[in-house]
Specification:
Strand 7 and strand 8 form a beta hairpin. It is built from one helix and ten strands, in the order H-E-E-E-E-E-E-E-E-E-E. The chain is about 15% helix and about 40% strand. Strands 1, 2, 5 and 10 form a four-stranded mixed beta sheet that branches. It has two domains: about 30 residues; about 100 residues, Immunoglobulin-like.
């Protein structure tokens, strides 16, 4: 077997490309579609007392008591708007939705830094049957 020093520059280049190509294949897997069911994007708005929620998070949890065994999803709420990342949304069917919202003004309360600000409301929960397709869902959280 010839050592690397005896290979010509073009042979070393080809060998390097082959090694890099093999490494890239191993790191990315076989390619193709991601495993699991098709997930759909959910986007929309979140308001509190008819005003956009400045910061927050919305979580979509499958309602397994209603037969939904699919994955959950979630998204940040920024200036009253949210959108799940492509491939990280929902599969459709019955879901429990949980929403937390903040005033968006960084604060310090009892020594704890609140980068998203103070909570606007207690965690809001509701249920909804989502379609098997991309959808827009709007949530208006009423003031108590």
């Amino acid at each position: 077997m010839r050592s690397l020093q005896r290979l010509s520059a073009s042979q070393r280049s080809l060998l390097s490309l082959a090694v890099l190509g093999s490494a890239a294949t191993l790191l990315t897997g076989c390619g193709g579609a991601p495993a699991g069911p098709t997930r759909y994007t959910v986007s929309g708005t979140v308001t509190y007392d008819k005003q956009p929620v400045p910061k927050g998070f919305i979580t979509f949890s499958p309602d397994d008591t209603a037969g939904n065994k699919g994955p959950g999803g979630g998204a940040q709420i920024i200036n009253g708007k949210f959108k799940t990342d492509i491939g990280k949304g929902v599969v459709g069917g019955p879901y429990t939705i949980q929403i937390v919202g903040y005033d968006g003004v960084p604060a310090k309360v009892e020594g704890e830094e609140l980068k998203d600000g103070k909570p606007l409301f207690s965690t809001y929960m509701t249920t909804l049957t989502l379609p098997k397709g991309d959808s827009t869902q709007n949530f208006d959280i009423p003031k108590p």
